[in-house]
Every structure is written in structure tokens, then in C-alpha cells.
Amino acid sequence: MVDRDIPRWLPITLFIAALAAAFWRAPMPAPAHFEPTPPASTPPLAAEFFSEKIPEANGNVGPSTLARLPDGRLIIAWQETRTEEASDAKIRLQFQDKQGNWSKARDVASRATVAGHSFAYLSQLDRPLLYAEGNWLHLWFVTHGISDWRSAAIIHTFSSDGGQSWATQSKMAIAPGFNPGGLQLAPPVQLAEGELALPLQENSGKVHSWLRLAATGTAIEKIRLPAEQSLMQQGPAAVNQPPGAESLIALSDKNLLAAGHPEGNRKILQLWHSIDGGQHWQTSRVIERAADGAAEFTHPFLLRTRDGRIHLTYTWRQQGIRHLYFTEAWLAEGDRP
Amino acid sequence: MSFLAAYGLLAHALIFGAIAALLPLGILRPKAALAATTLALLVGIAPGLHGILGTPSVTLLQLALLQLANKTPSPFTVRAAIGVLAFAVIFYAMSWGFGPFDLYALGFQPRAILMAMLPLAAALHWRKMHAALLILAVDLAAYATGVFPNFWDVLIDPLLVLLAFCMVARQAYLRFSARGNR
Known about the structure:
heterodimer; A: five-stranded antiparallel beta sheet; globular; B: mainly alpha
């Protein structure tokens, strides 16, 4: 294109018009306002502990996630592969009604569905994360473009009918072009007016940020956190997590619970409890401990529901998923009965 | 299917066609470009590039379209390529976590960046670089459609940076060779 072929007035006029339109389109949201941790809606519960195996999570299962729907049903999603190859990974779902019966499992995402929606090649999908908020049920998961941890992206979809049907799986804008390292997500924190703050670990855990999402799940702001900070219900806070912790929830203002592996030992899965906002942690309960070579209890995920119960899911020996629920009174009692 | 996903796939196919159009094929050049664009869609090159490199910028798509239309000389000069490379080093380093500040995050609420476009546009207008200014105007219009959540994704992408690197490297090689021949 030769510059002299273009009338002199045309580009600058178009530029000014496009700049005005872009200025009008650019969002200017009010500063994020964090919602306080909702108190449990019931009086303190008696000591209670329940454990079960998710019926259809068999074979090579990976990370799992849990949410409570407004009608009281529990929904679990997990990553599963048919073979040892990660390339046939799927995200599967199962519902539990109020009587404790699990529905038939179904696939919500696979390489084929994500490729069909995003028109992009991907080598695998991993790390699902569910979050229920009002009538919206969000599902995020991580995809990898070429290898395990290269060119990672986050895919978001949502359901407004309790998980029966799902919207188009769309790639979220989190980094320019592609993400050079691994990505990890943590459960979002509620903001005012239906917005969410989604904690992210980018570049294989070296960079900590949070994405501010509109109610529809679209990113409208990104804020980088210092490495030692976490996103708590009150906002970004410096939390000194116990070494080996992989999942963290706030039970109340300063009352925190973490699940993970002491000193990175995956043969032990335990809980830590802090009553001073993470300044000091004490071992609360050992959930699993085994000495045999095949033992691995991985990918713990904690959820506190509004009925006051605390749920924990984890991958049991890479063969299945266990779901536990317990109360704060059970935690306070000491060792597992 | 989202509009952005469809855009990304088609843009990568056209960019691949434009790369084929760079080959010295004489009168076969338009046919080679068309064949390459079609092949990119059919044999999985475009989805592969889309999956690995992400969505191409509107800037790169416009440069590809100009190349396919044989509108030469391209407004993407070596001087522009040096500017893109210099900016990209800072931009990607900071956005990927190798700095104290996330430049990419600014693109979600880009009014400050939009204001910074004004002196750039004035300079391009002053220097009669109308094609470059037109490309910038189309970038802004693309952002104004609301399809791109982050303004940087309209302006720059890794493939554009790779193109800039190739142009600068080629220029450096030619200069080096010319010195050697003297």
C-alpha cells in the first residue's frame, strides 16, 4: 500500500472516530468490593464425619472440584483419562441429591468439544474448578496447547439451569498470546454485584494474580499479587500457608483450614487449622496415611457450604475420588475417630 | 463457537496464506496463497497455530491482507519492526512475570493506553505514514466492537513479534554480507 494513494484526511478522521468508539467501549468499573465471608446459616453443628467414594470416578482420575447448587444438590467435576495418555482427558460431572444418591456421570468437556468451540488445537485438559453463585454455575478448566505445561489457557463455560446445559466453552484472556508456563486456579472469591475474583498462579506458580470477572465470566481487570499473598474473602491478604498445602478455605474471619501433604509427602493427606489468619498453623486431622508404594492421595479440594459442613474431595491412589464431609466440631475433637 | 474463536481460526489461515505469498513464485503467487490458506484450514495448520500462539492481533491480520492483495511496499518497515521488537521485549517480559508490573493488565481498562495513541497518531500523520495510521484506526475499531476483552490483543501478538524479528535479522544479515563483499 503506497501512502500517497490514501487521501491525507482519511486516516486521521477514521482514527479519531475509532479512538472515540474505543474510549466509549473501554470499561471503567468501580474499585472491586469484596463481600464478607457469609456466616453459616445454621447453628453450630455437632461433630460429624462422613466418607464415600464417588461411584463413577474410576480409572485414571485427576483433580476434582465441588460446588453446592441453590437447590441443595451437590455437584462434583473431575478430570479423567481412559488410558495413561493425557490426550484423551475429559471433564466429567456427577450430581448428588439431598438424599445422598449420585446421578449417572456425564461428560461436560473433552478435547473434541473444546477444540470444536475454540477452533484451536489442544493436547489435554486438566484442573476443573466449579463455582455456584445464584443461578449461575461456572466451570473453568486448564488446557495445554503443545505439552504438559506450555501454552496453557483457561477455558470457561457456565450453566444457568443447574448443570443440565452448558454455554459455549470460551478461552479467557489472561496473558498476551499464550502463557509460557503452567497455570493453576483457586476457587473464586465473591465480589459485589455478582462479580468474582479468580485467583491464578501463572508461569508454573511463579506469578500470582487475580482476575476480576463480570457476572458473565468475562475478565475486566487483572491484578498481580506479591508471591506471599493469597486472595481471601476480605481481599488480597498475606497468608503464610503451611508447606505442602494445596487447598485453603476461610471458615470465618481469621479461621482458616488447609489441606495438603506434609513436606510434600503424597502418601499422607492432612488438614491444618489456623485461628489467627494464617500466622500460625497446627495439624488438625490426618485424613489418609499409607506406607505402600502405590499410595498417593492427591489434589485435595475444600469447600465450605452454607449449611456449615466442610467438604473435601481428593484423588485416591489415582484410582478414584473420595468425598468427605465433616463439621468444625469434628475438627476440634482432635484425631480422626 | 464464539466470534473470537472463529476470527482466530480464519486469521491464522489468512496469515499462513500471506506467508506463502512471500515466496518468489511469480505469476503463481496468488494461487499459492489461496492454496496455502485453504490447506491451513483443512489440514489443521490454522487450529494448531491458534492453539499454540493464541489469537492473532488485528494488526498482523491487516498486514497479511495487504500482503495477499499485493499492496507493496508494506507499511511494516524495518524501522517499524525494530520499534515492535523493542516494545515486545519489555511488554512480554513484564506480562509474563519477569518484572514488577503487569503491562498486559493495563489492556483490560485501556483508557490510558488509548490516550497514549494520540501522540503516536499525530506523529504518523505528520510524517504522512497514512497506511500505518489506517492500520491503527482499524485496530481501535476492532477493539470498539467489544470482541476483544484486552486491548493489547488487538495490537500485538507473538507471531507479529516473530515477523519483526525475522525482518530485523534479515536486514542485519544483508548489511553484514554487504560489508563482507566490500
